[in-house]
Structure formats: C-alpha cells, structure tokens
Amino acid sequence: MAEIIDTRIEPDRAIERACAVLSDGEPVAIPTETVYGLAADATNADAISRIYEMKGRPRFNPLICHVSDIAMAEAHVTFDPVSRQLAEAFWPGPLTLILPQRPESTVHALASAGLDTLGIRMPDGFSRRVIARFGRPLAAPSANTSGKISPTSAAHVEADLGSKLKLILDAGASEIGLESTIIKVEDGKLRLLRPGGLDAAAIEALTGLAVERPESAGATIEAPGMLASHYAPGAAVRLDAEDVRKGEALIRFGGKALPGESDAVIVMDLSPGGSLREAAANLFDYMKKADASGAATIAFGPIPNEGLGEAIIDRLQRAAAPRA
Fold first, then answer.
1. Which of 11, 69, 223, 287 is deepest in the core (most CB within 10 A)?
2. Contact in structure between 200 and 207 (CB atoms under 8 Å)
3. In terms of C-beta density within 10 A (0-12 exposed, 13-18 middle, 19 or more buried), how is residue 25 classed?
C-alpha cells in the first residue's frame, strides 16, 4: 500500500519524499486545487508510461504538464499574446492552455500523445511547491482509474490506486473539485476544449473575445477530458431527473426535493443553497458515495447550465454516455 504523508503536518518531508520518488521514475499522487493528480516526470518516457499503465489510460489521450512558473512553461511552449494574457491573469489556477511545443522542449512525446502541442498549467497550492523543488514539469492526469470518477481527496486515491502507488500526498479535500478549464487559442479565437474550474465568462470578460464551444462531445482528441464516456461511476447515470425511481441513488441541487425520493437508497444535495461553486466541490465525492450505496442507477436532478454549471453538466453527460 502507498505511504501517505499529510502535507499540512510534514510539508518539508512531503516535498523531499515526493522528489525522491519522482526522481526514481515513479508516479506520485499530489493534491491540487482542482482534483488529485497522478504526477510523474514529464521528461521521462518510462515515468509517463507508468502513468498510462497505472490508470489504464489510452495512449492517444494526452496529459497536462504542470509547471511552477511561467519561466518553466516558456522552456517548453510558445505563447501567443492572448494565451500569455490568460496565463498572467489566471495562473496559478484552474486553467490549462494548449500551446505549440518548442522544438527544444524536453517533455517527452508520450505526454503529448504525439501532438505538436502541449497542455500546460500552473497549479495553485502545495503541488506547485513540489514542482518548483523537482525543477521539471510534471505530467499529471487525475489520480484514478481511467474513465472513472476523479478523486478529490487522498482517501479517494488510496481506495482506487493505493495498491499501485508508492506515495500519496494528503492536503485535504480539493478546493475546486473539478478539473481545469482547457482553452486553445487559434487564429485569434478562443476554443473551449473542456469546461472546468474557471468560468468561461471570466475568460471572455478579460479578453473581450467569445469562447467557442466544441460542436459535439467525443470530437478529435486534442486535450484530456474529451472522450465521450468519462468520469463514470459503476452505476448507470440518469440526468435531469424529475422524479426518483425505487432503489435509485439521488443527487440533487438547490434544496429541491423530487417526487419519490423517500424510496431512494441515498439522497444528497450538491448545494442546498444553490451555490454552483459548492456543487462543483462536492460533485465527485457525492458520485463516489452514491456509487458505494449499492444503487444500480444514480439519478441527478437538474443543474443550471450557467457559470460552473456548464462544467458540472459536461462531467455528468460524459458519465452518462454509453460505455465501451
């Protein structure tokens, strides 16, 4: 089983131990403000291969490279003016930019799935300190079995991947609880490849440019989180439920009770007060609890399609999609 170090109690030991394991080419589960990541040296092909193997992740699905500062990013990617504006405004934070990879970049092609671009972001919190000490970018998808519910606590990681990992860093619950928003700038236009923890409206307000949405889920894979089926629990998922069927688990929003919920196996409310930020933070944890309840189906009440609601609905639609 994995060694678990609480970063709030032993921060220095956590950093030193993480760097030692990473230097050996082994992945480490690290906390970020979005979700927990399965991090490995982005310049080491064997280390990246271990991420794919540990997650059971298809190798055509690229990984995000995490950096400690813009200088580290500039060693590997080329910024256009709009992308730089976004980085300076929203880094560190839940924004990933898809940028052209520099020819001299040492990030291995396995991390980019052979594309000529890299997904790159600067996380907030303890993970940034680990990257700064390690001195190289870390490739870090979510620390869970591929396609399953993303982890927002060290306990989630331990339950899923604990037998495969050497080290898990525990910084408590993830503050945001949704993966990063992924943006690609092309010909002066902003393309939203994945909605996430940064509201697209904030990006539009900063740049004065409209954020274009993809035409459909499961389009050409240019970034993580674009597979049609993803974030899936073991149970089936039913969206926009107007009632609850006997034996279902219910996850609702805004304190709105649904007919039949007295027959539900479990009832949870993402945010009784109607806060989409609170709902985002609770989403994956509640999905895991509902899945553990034994219900064959998880019913979700309606979620407003605005602000962070766009990212929540994206995750739910992929969780409900037909599975291979």
1. 287
2. no
3. middle
**Distances, alpha carbon 117 to alpha carbons 58, 97, 185, 222, 268, in Å:** 18, 10, 12, 9, 40
Q: Which domains does the chain have, with CATH numbers?
A: 3-212 (3.90.870.10), 236-320 (3.40.50.11030)
3-state SS string over 19-56?
HHHHHCCCCEEECCCCCCEEEEECCCHHHHHHHHHHHC
Phi (first) and psi of residue 82, to 5 degrees: -70, -45
81 by Cβ neighbours in 10 Å (0-12 / 13-18 / 19+) ranks as: exposed
Question: What is the 8-class DSSP label of residue 294?
Answer: T
Strand partners, 186: 189
List, for residues 282-315, the tens digit of each pLDDT value: 999 999 999 999 999 999 999 999 999 999 999 9
According to DSSP H, which parts of the chain are helical? Answer: 11-23, 45-55, 70-74, 81-90, 109-112, 126-134, 154-161, 200-207, 276-292, 309-320
Note whether 130 and 120 are within 8 A (CB). Answer: no
Three-class SS string for 200-240?
A: HHHHHHHHCCCEECCCCCCCCCCCCCCCCCCCECCCEEECC
DSSP 3-state of 283: helix
pLDDT tens figures, 112-160: 888 899 999 999 999 999 999 999 999 999 999 988 899 999 999 999 9
